[in-house]
Amino acid sequence: MKYKIYNYIAVFFSMALVTTSCVDNEDLEQLDPNNNAVDSFWQTDQDALQGVNAAYGSLLTDGTYMRSTPLLLDARADDARTNSPWGSMYNAGHFNSNVADAAIYGWAYETYYQGIYRANQVLTNVPGIDFADEALKNRILGQAYFLRGLYLFHAVNLFKNVPLPTELAVYYPQKTQDEGWAQVIADFKAAADLLPNSYDGISGLDAGQKGRATKGAALGYLGKAYLFTKDFTNARTTFKQVIDLGVYSLVANYRDNFTTANENNSESLFEVQFSRDAGGVDLGWGGAPASGWGKTSARAITYAPRAFGWTDVQPTWALFNEFQEEKTKTGATDPRLDATIFYNKPGGMQLYGKDFATFYASSPGDLNDLFCRKYQNSDGEFADEYDWRSGINERLLRYADILLMYAECLNETGDTPGAYTYIQMVRNRVNLPDLAVTKPGMTQEQMREQIGHERFLEFPLEGHRFDDIRRWGWLENPTKLAWLKARDTEFNSYTKGREYYPIPQLEMDNNPGTVQNESY
Q1: Which domains does the chain have, with CATH numbers?
Q2: What is the annotated signal peptide range for this record (predicted)?
């Protein structure tokens, strides 16, 4: 089962930040007299596997992919808007997060470091354990490097200059963003060297288990880290390694990437494993996983259409309109529109077993509005999302992303003609015309704009768009910023420095000398 890797050990480990300079690390190593497991743990291969499972557990809480991280990634981009009545959520989308209120962004920050700490426990203790199966040991260490790299990736990407814990210590000073990206790259490199292509066909405690990090996932994120630091040459080489693995392919139906029907499919490099049937009823708001946890996602209820959930996030009209710009080879609308957005479609559209036009007939505002369809349990099996128990896996990295990032690297390294091939692979799935015919001979700059368009329509509401906007320098470009403001009024609130979230005040208080991000 997809949730098998989350049979957590009961004990785990919260990070205490101690700033007193007169205490040695050794003085803090004390056993809990009420917990006999602490001093006897990290003895066997089973302990090691449970330890890395706990590091995966930090992907499931409210601070990460249960709810907060998708919000932080989506809310500020021009494919999404938020009019949430909750100020913390509204402010996240309007570049106005409050240093005095760490809700959402602070929960994410805290959980990233919880995950980092758990991964460091594995990396510190597992090398000293004797394994009968050395390949299993390498896989466990590889997963710990991957998870530490992933949590650091988010911390550096969202908060800029952050601590970089790579060993267990008392105090972790703030580092520069360049140092942060260097550590992320090092971790993904180490993970790629240790991880298998797949857990099928191997022996050991983890044999056949879905959801564990693989070589492809590590290489994919390594390439992404290179791309985010504008190292296009290394990014190009790394993405080609993923392609050459021969493991991944695009699924025929685009929407299969956002439902429970086809999870862990051939397009998925890494996804967070949620399950409505995983047992337990408690929501995973944070802390150590407990036996009562439901291990479910709150994304669906948070993004759900009006009357089916909270409607805290909605698609923009800029996104809807851009889907209209190019027809398929048969003259139809891009099918990704209907997979992404609920709207008053001519001829009708179903949501949760209801006809859109009929259901919203008495509410003109809703009838003429747009709602999220991605990651919704809306095909009629469930009446709404109010049980807070979505089991849809969060797809963090898809093969379509690898193809379009590789095309971008080809363009940036002088092979603009070569970029056409990989862009067209993504376009072919939705039956769009041959770009080499409709727009032949594009310049490098024209191809950059085209890649921006292609990525906008392939990945809306998947947490990629604002990262793209920031790394492409659009916020520093007056023409582009004006264009973004015209498409999404939330950009009218943007000021320089607000492309990152603030360092939470608790971190500022616990780590003297920490410098707050610009404009906060």
Answers
A1: 4-249+282-300+500-510 (1.25.40.390), 312-384 (no CATH)
A2: 1-23
